[in-house]
Amino acid sequence: MAYVIGVDVGGTFTDAVLDDDAGTVLAAKAPSTPPDYSRGVIDVLEVLAGQLGCPIEEMLANTHHIAHGTTSSLNALVMGNVPPVGFLTTKGHRDSIYIMNVEGRYLGGSPEQLQNVMGQSKSHGLIPKKHALEVTERLDRDGNVVVALDEESARRSIRTLLADGITAIAVSLLWSFRNPTHEQRIRELVHEIDPTVFVSLSSEVSPRIREFARNATTIMSTQIGPGLRDYLGSLESELRERKLAGPLLVMQSNGGAVAAAEAPKNAISTVGSVLTGGVVGAVSLGKQLGHRNIIATDVGGTTFLVGLVVDGEPVRASSTIINHHPINVPTLEVHAIGSGGGAIAWVDPGGNLQIGPHSAQAVPGPACYGQGGIEPTNADANLVLGILPEHGLLGGRKPLDKDLAREAIRTKIAEPLGLSIEDAAAAIYAVQNAQTGDLLRKTVVEAGHDPRDFVLYAFGGAGPAHCAAYAREVGVREVIVPLGQVASAFSAYGLASSNIVLAAELSDPAAMPLDPARAERNFAQLESQVLEQLNRQGLTFTGVEIEREIDMRYTMQLAEVATAVPAGSLDAAGIHAASDLFEQRYAELYGKDSGFREAGIQAITYRVRATGLLPFSPTLPEVKSADSADPTPAHIGTRKVCLDGRIGYVDTDVYDYSKLLAGHVLHGPAIIEVPTTTVVVPDDTTGTVDRLGNLTIAAQ
C-alpha cells in the first residue's frame, strides 16, 4: 500500500488528506501550533494514522510523498517578522530599493488608499540603509563587462555586513540576468569568508528585467530562506525519525510542489503556497464533476481566498505584490482579504462595524474557544446565531462556549453600537458576507467574466457557512461544497493532488518579429534548467510536460501579457502567431480595440514551466446512493438559527452529514453538521448530495 499525504498549515488549523493507490481518501484536522508549526503537522499525521488504525511510523513508512503547504513564509513577510539581511548591489544603485520606482506609495493599495494621496508614504523599506552596501562593478545591457568586479571592495562590504551580525545576504547587480558571473563570484567571496552565510543571487531568484522588482524579490527571498531551510530541515528530520519513506515536498505559488531541500534556494516561490492548494484541488475535482469554469473560495481561520479556473486551467500571474513591493514570482492568481472565521469584528472611530483584517488565529483564538481570547470574531457570531453547534467543532474535540461569545460581542460590538447581542451577531454575519462578496466581484467581474458562467466551490472551515450568501451577492447560480472525505481540508486535498512544477525565466527584450533562432536559444536554455531541476527532486515521474510563454507588451507601455508559445521548433510563422495571440489576450484583458499594433510589439521575458507528473493523486470515491430524495434518515433535530437579522431566529432543520447519501435533497433553511465544518442551506434554496458526497446548493 502506498500513501500520498497533503498537509495544509494554516494560521488556525492544520489540515491533512491521505490518499492511497486503492482509492481510499481520509481527512484530518488539528489545531495549528505557533510558533512551532511542525508540532501541528505531527499532530494531524497522528490523527490520520489513528483513522488508518496503525502507528504513525507504519503509515509514514508506506508514504510515497508528503506535499506540504505553509503560510509561514507569507506571514513572515507581511508581518515583518524576518531576520536582518544584507544587500549588495552595483555602485550608485543602492537607493533603488528606497526610491521604490515611485510605485512603493501605491502598489497593492485599495481604491480608498490610492485616492488618499496625502496619506501615502514609503515608510515600508525592506532593510535599513546601513545593511545596503555597494560594490564596484558594471555590466552593460548586453551583459558585457564595462567595469570589472573590484573584489577587494566586495570583501570590505561583506565583512562590514558580517561584523554587524548579518547571516544572510542578497546580491542583485545591474544587468546580472544577462551575465551572472559577477554575482556568482561575490557568492564565492562570501563563502570564502564565512561558508555558513545564506546567499541569494538575483540572477537565480529573479533573472528578469526591472531593477526595483528584481531587488525586492531577491531581498525577500533572502529574508525567508534561512527560516524556511531550518523549519523544513527540522520537520524532515523528525519525519525521517518516524520512518517517512518518500520525500517531503513543499507547495509553491505556481500550483506545483518542489523537494523540501530545494525550496529554500528560491524561497520566494513558496510565498502563498497554501493559497494555491485550494485552486489545484478545484481543478482536480472539476475534472471529476465536468466543471471547467470554477470560482474557488476558501474561508479559513484567518483569510478569505478567491481563485479562478477558466476553461479547465487556473488563472496565472507572473508577479504579485507584498507590502507595496512588486515580487517576480510565477503564481496562480489568488486574491485574499483578512476575513476568515477568526477575523476580529470591531467598531471604527466613525461608529462603523468592520471585520478583519486582524485575526484571533489559533492562539488565543475566538472568544468562544475559551483560550483567553476576548475579541469577537465571525466564529463567535455564528455560534450566537445558532449556525455553529454548541457541542463544538471537530466532532466535539474543540468545545465552544456560547456565553464567552456573547460577552465578547456585547462589550465590543453590541454596546458601542446600541444593539442587542443577537442583532450585533447578525450584523457581523451580514458584513462578512458583503465584504467577501465584494472580493468575488473584484476577482470575477473586473477580470471581464460573467459570474453566471461559473460554478462556485466553497471550502475551508468557515466557507460552507457563508458560501450561499456571498455567491448570491454576485449572482452565481450554483455552489458546490466539497464534502465527502475532504470537507474543510480541501486545500490539503489540493496539495495531495499536485505534481512537481518548476519554472525558469529570463529577460531578453527585443522588438517583434524577433529572430526565431534567438527565441529558440532562450527556450532551450530555460528548458535545460528546469529539466535539470526535475532530476534533483528525488522522484520518478510518469511523464514531463513543458509549457513555454513570452511576456509581451506594446512599445512604450508597461502592461505585459504572458503569451503562450507552442512546443516545437519556431519559425517566422510561429513568431507571427505569438504576436497575434498577444493582441487577442490584450483585448480580452483591456477591451476590444484597446491595442495599438502600429506602436510595435516587444518580447520581454521568456518563461518555461515543467510539470513532472506523479504516479497517482487523489480522486474522490463515490458514496452510497439513497433510495429516495427524502433526507429524513439524516435529520437529527431542529434549532433556532438566524441567517437574516431582518427575519430573526427561525426553527431550522439540522442534519448529520454522515447519514446523508447521494441523491438526498434538503430544502432550506437547513444546517448540515460535518465534523470539520458546518453548511448553511438558506431559505429558497435546496441542497443536493451528489455521487461524490458533495453538496450542491441552488435556488429553488
Helical percentage: 25-40%
Question: What portion of the residues fall into strands of 2 or more residues?
Answer: 25-35%
Uncertain segments:
none
Mean pLDDT: 89
* Helix and strand composition category: alpha+beta
Gyration radius, rounded: 26 Å
Strand element count: 35
> What count of helical segments does DSSP give?
17
Describe this structure in words.
The structure is a single chain. By secondary structure, this protein is an alpha+beta fold. A hairpin with a 5-residue loop joins β34 (685-689) and β35. α6 (151-163) crosses α7 and α11 (378-384) crosses α13.
Features:
27% strand; 35 strands; six-stranded mixed β-sheet; Hydant_A_N; nine-stranded mixed β-sheet; alpha+beta; globular; single chain
Topology:
Blueprint: E1 3-9, E2 13-20, E3 25-31, H1 37-52, H2 56-61, E4 63-70, H3 72-79, E5 86-90, H4 96-99, H5 111-115, E6 132-135, E7 138-139, E8 145-147, H6 151-163, E9 168-172, H7 181-193, E10 198-201, H8 202-205, H9 211-241, E11 248-251, E12 257-259, H10 273-289, E13 294-299, E14 304-310, E15 313-314, E16 316-317, E17 320-322, E18 325-327, E19 331-332, E20 334-337, E21 343-347, E22 353-359, H11 378-384, H12 402-417, H13 421-444, E23 455-459, H14 463-474, E24 478-481, H15 490-497, E25 500-511, H16 516-535, E26 543-554, E27 561-565, H17 572-590, E28 601-613, E29 635-642, E30 649-656, E31 665-667, E32 670-674, E33 677-681, E34 685-689, E35 695-699
Parallel strand pairs: 1-4, 4-11, 5-6, 5-9, 9-10, 13-23, 23-24, 30-32
Antiparallel strand pairs: 1-2, 2-3, 7-8, 11-12, 13-14, 14-15, 14-20, 16-19, 17-18, 21-22, 24-35, 25-28, 26-27, 26-28, 29-30, 31-34, 32-33, 34-35
